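Re-run with default settings, no changes from the original entry. Doing this only to confirm the output is reproducible before filing.
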Amino acid sequence: MDLPSNPPVSPAVRITVLLRLVSEGFQDAFAARPAWLEVPAVDLAELREIVGVERVEQLRSATGLREGATYTAGGPAGTVTLSAAAHEGVLGLLGLAALPPDVVVEETPDGARYHVPEDWFVTAPAGRNGSADRAG
């Protein structure tokens, strides 16, 4: 995904939104919080540079954040990985591109809530590919 060298949204915000999206996708799929979250090495390094080593260590402790190949949430029940559609769609959620037409926006007293399509998530129940067993 090509982003401008001086984006209007901090890379830390984009990374945080992707982590929240995969975490909520896991919770929706398995009715439980993920035991761990994976983020690509380049994004983890960028996050560490922006927010500092101490804050990343706090996130590691609180969420099981670790380096991985892509944005994935996992636990005993299985894994959820963000699809390419999610990576493109999140640009719309951040106001950097048009909002995808299959995203439903619900106005609530607390602000807008976004309902994203199921194809943003690749869900693998435990035992199907062994990836849920990647203990941290």
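The mean pLDDT is 88. The chain is about 40% helix and 25% strand.
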